[in-house]
Design a protein that fits this description.
- Helix content is 56%, strand content 11%.
- It contains 19 helices and twelve strands.
- The longest helix has 37 residues.
- It starts with 9 loop residues before the first helix and ends in a 14-residue tail after the last helix.
- Bound molecules: flavin-adenine dinucleotide.
- The site of flavin-adenine dinucleotide has 19 residues, from strand 3, strand 5 and helix 13.
């Protein structure tokens, strides 16, 4: 067996962007994107593929083995090659693909950016954490940074000269962000300037050795602030102080005092950051006092979508590795010849069980990619169209589905990477092949950016109830409308099964809402994760259906190839083998069982 190299399914990426969502035609009608055309998009995708395969993929395995280190002065050294990869990324303008032109960006649509980030993150997940967080922080800085520390600072970040982080977590405040204790005391005579004291843990990219400066966005509590999330404010805390012309000055009092040794994403420095311990730590208020959570939500929303994209990218790379291995690995005879010891040996992609595993990964990965680009495209349109009704509809769907994208794609990435490992057998488990790293790298995605349990509570407790349940009702109606169209275009059986599953989601939501109305919140929240999983499973069925409809139309129009026929097979497989999980989950959600809440347990 040769080594497995990182491959990207460019055909599928282009299919989703240009055939399924026809983003080119749709965005032409929007002034902001009118000047772009399909050639521009395609050349960006081609260049991104080169960057991912030639620059990023080679540092992934070595970066995992080497990890990050910390010196006594609190400086992090990232793995060999990260500095050069960052320089290439910055020089190529890859951090600013989707940034506004006035901030040095190209102003390309989010959907194209997502496709690019999928390629980069699949190539080197740990590395991609640094630009991912920098870009998300830069957008908040540009919008809410104080005078002189907004546009200019964000421009530096989008240019890759400065990096960014997101600092919420403290030892006693993980999921419970409102328990943050970090203190921010106003500095006399300097309005908007504070001295911060406290400790943040698990800060991704808390330090690096490739940017001149780092902008930490830190949640902290001002004197007399109310308890809980309402009392939190957000501060811009630089690694190095800087003057009005952005010249770097003295070291600020934010130092890394430890880095974690982790299961995966070892090239990403996960840092403990001490603020104001040895010297004053300057922080500058973003927005207004107590706006902290609202502003952080801007970043978290982008970061949650980003984790969904990570889930897609990890599943996609795991699939490509498993497929390449299965086409090459020879083992056993075909089932037809199993009694004949002299029969020719076959590659394992001939074995039904291996084909089942490959299809399980393929159909869900492609459906997730469709889900991701759907939300990216809806965001592009919603944020820039003049059509208010369309903007509202699209935004409603994005609002509802962001926790599902984050949680379902991240959960699946770990499961599908584990299935890919299984395809490789024992060779999947050893470090010589890249799949075991994908499994380890994937696990964190269900934990950070709000654990998937917290996402489920957000979905059930907040998103479902938004606008009196209108977001959810619109989702149901739109999804059922698609099933109606599918039934008329030759997919009666599949459309009927999916339609039923949509109704089951509706029934489960009603049931849980009923428990809530009776004050049985424990019983409702007990089913938040199964409900989220159910909705995610149905959403991916909808994506498969949509893709099959598009593929069939193209085939009927004379464009026939294996990729398009694969979409028809994806739908059949998904409906027969994956969708029944949603039906089973629906039964569990509505079972009324709350045995695990019995006080006799877990004491
Ligand atoms: C590698 C890595 C990188 C990270 N990067 C960052 C970063 O850049 N910035 C940052 O601020 N943080 C970061 N984090 C922190 C991450 O976001 C937290 O670990 C996560 O939010 C969970 O918090 P916790 O670890 O304290 O777990 P806990 O909050 O203690 O949760 C433990 C378990 O209890 C469940 N739970 C907790 N509360 C509830 C509840 N009310 N209802 C139901 N279930 C609940 C959780 O779902 C989870 O299963 C990172 C963490 C890691 C490991």
């Amino acid at each position: 067996m040769g080594a497995l190299s990182y491959r990207i399914d460019m055909k599928d990426i282009r299919f989703v962007l240009f055939d399924q969502f026809d983003i080119d035609a749709d965005l032409k009608a929007i002034t902001k994107y009118a000047e772009f055309d399909i050639d521009t998009y395609n050349s960006m995708l081609d260049e991104a593929e080169k960057m991912a395969t030639q620059v990023l993929a080679p540092i992934n395995g070595p970066g995992d083995r080497q990890g990050c280190s910390l010196d006594k002065a609190g400086n992090v050294t990232t793995p060999d090659g990260f500095k050069e990869a960052w320089a290439a990324l910055a020089e190529g303008g890859w951090l600013a693909v989707n940034a506004e032109p006035e901030l040095g960006g190209l102003g390309l649509p989010a959907s194209i950016n997502m496709a690019i980030v999928e390629m980069f993150s699949g190539a080197a997940t740990a590395f991609q954490m640094y630009p991912g967080l920098t870009v998300a922080a830069a957008r908040v800085v540009a919008k809410f940074g104080p005078e002189g520390k907004n546009t200019e600072v964000a421009t530096k970040m989008f240019a890759g000269q400065w990096a960014g982080t997101m600092c919420l977590t403290e030892a006693n405040a993980g999921s419970s962000v409102g328990d943050n204790r970090c203190k921010a005391t106003p500095v006399d005579g300097q309005p908007g300037t504070y001295h911060l004291v406290g400790e943040k843990i698990f800060i991704s990219g808390g330090d690096n050795d490739f940017t001149e400066n780092i902008i930490h966005l830190v949640l902290a509590r001002t004197p007399g602030a109310p308890n809980g999330t309402k009392g939190l404010s957000l501060f811009l805390v630089p690694k190095y102080n800087f003057d009005g012309s952005l010249n770097i000055g003295e070291r600020n009092g934010a130092f890394v005092v430890g880095i974690e040794h982790k299961m995966g994403i070892n090239g990403s420095a996960t840092c403990t950051l001490a603020l104001g311990a040895d010297k004053p730590c300057n922080g500058y208020l973003l927005g207004k006092e107590f706006d902290g959570m609202a502003l952080m939500f801007h970043m978290m929303n982008e970061a949650r979508i980003g984790v969904g994209v990570q889930g897609v990218s990890l599943s996609a790379s795991a699939y490509q590795y498993a497929l390449a291995y299965a086409k090459d690995r020879v083992q056993g005879t075909s089932i037809a010849n199993f009694k004949d010891a002299d029969a020719p040996r076959v590659t394992i992609n001939q074995h039904p069980d291996v084909r089942r595993m490959l299809m399980t990964i393929k159909c869900q990965t492609e459906a997730m990619r469709s889900f991701m680009i759907r939300l990216g495209h809806q965001l592009d349109v919603a944020e820039h169209t003049d059509d208010k009704k369309k903007a509202e509809d699209y935004m409603a769907e994005v609002e509802l589905l962001v926790p599902v994208l984050k949680s379902h794609c991240s959960d699946l990435s770990f499961e599908l990477a584990a299935t890919a490992l299984q395809v490789l057998g024992g060779f999947g488990y050893i470090g010589e092949y890249p799949v075991e790293q994908v499994v380890r790298d994937a696990k964190i995605t269900s934990v950070y950016e709000g654990t998937n349990g917290i996402q489920a509570m957000d979905l059930l407790g907040r998103k479902l109830r938004m606008k009196g349940g209108a977001l959810f009702m619109t989702w149901m109606q739109n999804s059922q409308k698609l099933c109606g169209k599918a039934a008329e275009s030759g997919f009666e059986k599949e459309a009927e099964a999916i339609n039923k599953s949509i109704q089951s989601v509706g029934g489960a939501a009603m049931h849980l809402g009923g428990l809530g109305m009776q004050g049985r919140l424990d019983g409702a929240m007990l089913q938040a994760v199964p409900f989220q999983r159910m909705l995610g499973t149905v959403q991916l069925a909808i994506e498969s259906l949509h893709q099959a409809m598009v593929a069939k139309k193209l085939i009927d129009g004379g464009r026939d190839d294996e990729h398009l026929r694969g979409k028809l097979l994806n739908l059949k497989f998904y409906v027969a083998n994956i969708l029944p999980q949603a039906v089973a989950l629906g039964k569990a959600v509505q079972s009324g069982d709350d045995s695990c809440l019995d006080p006799a347990l877990f004491n």
